[in-house]
Amino acid sequence: MGSMVGESLAPGDRGWSDRVTLVCPVADCRQPLTRRGRGLSCARGHAFDLARSGYVNLLQPQDRRSARPGDSLAALAARRRLHERGVEEPIAAALARLVTPAPGDAVLDVGCGEGHHLAAMTGASGAEGHGLDLSVQAIDAAARRYPTRHWLVANADRVLPYADGSFTLVTSINARRNPAEFRRVVRDDGALLLVVPAPDDLIEVREHVLGAGVERDRAERAIADFSPLFTLERRERVHHTARLDAATLRDAMASSYRAGRTSRLGRLASVPELYVTLSRDAFVFRPARLPAGPARRVAARAPGGCHGTE
């Protein structure tokens, strides 16, 4: 594991946000969670501890799909090495410029992994950052590296454990997407940044691993998923070409959801280095207006479903 040295934090500063209200994830509860000592609890007595590194685990047994939910440790390690080598830095910086939060805003990154994109998005703005991921290992690493943000373990395919209208900006970067819940937790005057791999992302690597650089355009599906709860305001293609050595090539493929069988990665063994395209399709959406009260919650649960980037 790489160094987890990150931001400094004064003793006693770890805790939860005064700006964003968490709600209890226990079935049929949904009461606000408030800070009590080293944990959070609701009026019905459901309690959740703060981990030593500062995150909160709100994942319920029915939300687990395996004993260790979330991305594999190998994929997490590969992404961490790519980050430490600066491979994704130009992409992260370009995405951070697409929607700039203001001081005092609250930003939620769904499927945040180890928090690199959220840190880039909120680093210079003074906005309050919140990251959610299914992986305990990813969230623990994020909390240690970026202790001034707020980190949560939960299943983004279910109900997001935040109060309605909590965030000025919601982001989903190569991650899960849940249109109804995104609309519920974003403010009416807020924004959604959705990012998916572009058709030419890693195309040179895929040619070696899969035998063909088949381009798959996810744009229309992504736009359709978020209509009519959101309106597309802006669409951008963000791309960067990097020269990667053999080890970094393997990490680039292992970190994606397109690596397939482990045996395929062996085909990269004979490639000493390669110029590789890193490419993302980014969409800025604005929330559609919803009625207030119970009617808002019904509208926000309109059909749409949960989808990943594949």
Explain how this protein is built.
This protein is of the alpha/beta class and 310 residues long. It has a single domain (71-300), classed as Vaccinia Virus protein VP39 (Rossmann fold, 3-Layer(aba) Sandwich), CATH 3.40.50. 26% of the residues lie in helices and 25% in strands. It is built from ten helices and eleven strands. It has helices at residues 73-84, 89-98, 116-122, 136-145, 179-185, 203-210, 219-225, 246-254, 262-265, 294-300, and strands at residues 34-36, 39-41, 47-49, 56-57, 106-110, 128-133, 150-153, 167-173, 186-197, 230-245, 273-287. An eight-stranded mixed beta sheet has the order 4-7-6-5-8-9-11-10, with helices on both faces. Strand 6 (128-133), helix 4 (136-145) and strand 7 (150-153) form a beta-alpha-beta unit. The longest helix is centred in the first third of the chain and has 12 residues, at 73-84. It is globular. The two termini are 28 Å apart. The model is unreliable at 1-15 (pLDDT under 50).
Instruction: Give the H and E element order.
Output: EEEEHHEHEHEEHEHHEHHEH
The largest sheet, given as strand count, sense and whether it forms a barrel, is: 8 strands, mixed
CATH superfamily: Vaccinia Virus protein VP39
* Number of domain units: 1
Strand order of the largest sheet: 4-7-6-5-8-9-11-10
Strand content: 15-25%
Number of helices: 10
Question: Structural class, judged by helices and strands?
Answer: alpha/beta
Q: What overall geometry do the principal axes of the alpha carbons give?
A: globular
Q: At the third CATH level, what is the topology name?
A: Rossmann fold
